[in-house]
Amino acid sequence: MAHGWTTPSAPSSTALLAVTSVFTVTSLSAVALRFYARRLARLDLLADDWLALAALICTLVYNSTLLTGTSRDIIANYTHPTAQTEVAARKYQLALQIIEVIALGLTKLSFFTLWKRVFSTHPVHRLCTFLIGAVTLWMVAFILATILQCGGHVSHIWSSIEDVNNSNTCASANRGILLTVYTITDLITNILITIIPIFVIVGLNMRIGRKIGMICLYVVGVYVTAISITRTYFTIVVSYNSNEEEDRLSFMHEFTLLALWAVIEVNVGILATCVTVVTRGVREVYADKRKKKFHMLSGVALKGDHHGGVGNEGGTRISNESDGIE
């Protein structure tokens, strides 16, 4: 069903190349800093770190695929794209969607694994365990749904506009529904990533200033959620604002617009999952150096720090024993 919404302008190929290139560098730097912060703090690498690394690898594959398609004038080709160009673009679209599901899924798993360990004595860790399983199923379900959106006729996914308009394929109708359900469920999990730390930290018995500081440190999922909301809106507009017969140029505009917001969300997710770990790791190292300097200047022997986390009267503790996180 078509609606009268205004479709946003698609980015130029130059803009898409620039954004993807910048994000490639920042994502690499974020994960490298995460591992370096662990090393500085003399902490073991744990499951959430390896999941972040796996998400980075998938993100780099996504970025490379998008850069290749754009540089070959297949993606973001608005100058009279041919049927051959369109078929190639649809193949890139299928590949990017599959890689994106894996990359976002691994990023979400890294978040929930971190929250499960950090909030290990709070009942919310059971929710995190459930969400880890749910996200894993979410990944598998949408990979299969993307590949099998035309049933067993996978080649129909990249059929040209002429075939779509002649009703020889399932591409147009099924893809819109699939993308809408995908982006909405993606948004829901991002909201959960954001609110879980708030729910725990608000209940802690500590000074309001420190509580606000901890919320700012842990609620990094808000950036991904904001992007996800914008992306969900664009997906709905694109999916349900088309004419009865889609033309090749409009397909290219819509594909490029959604690819832009997908690459933003995938890469910002990598950045967000590293911010908390890097920030706390650096602060722990700095605090340890200050403590050693104080004891050296005062002549007091440095004893082991037996502090095991931040607690409150209700017994909830936010562990920092294995990851430098309070």
Automatic annotation (TrEMBL):
List UniProt keywords, sorted A-Z.
Answer: Membrane, Transmembrane, Transmembrane helix
Which ranges are annotated Polar residues under compositional bias?
317-326
Q: Which stretches are transmembrane?
A: 15-36, 43-62, 94-115, 127-148, 187-204, 216-238, 258-282
- Region entry Disordered, spans: 305-326
In terms of superkingdom, the source organism counts as Eukaryota
| Alphabetical list of InterPro entries matching this protein | Rhodopsin_dom_fungi (IPR049326), SAT4-like (IPR052337)
Q: Does the keyword Transmembrane apply?
A: yes
Query: What is the membrane topology here?
Result: Multi-pass membrane protein
UniProt keyword annotation of Transmembrane helix present: yes
> Where is this chain primarily localised?
membrane
Look up the record and report any one GO term of the cellular component aspect: membrane
Where, per UniProt, does this protein localize? Membrane
Please report which protein family the annotation says this sequence is part of.
Belongs to the SAT4 family.
| Protein name in the entry | Uncharacterized protein
| Gene source species | Aspergillus kawachii
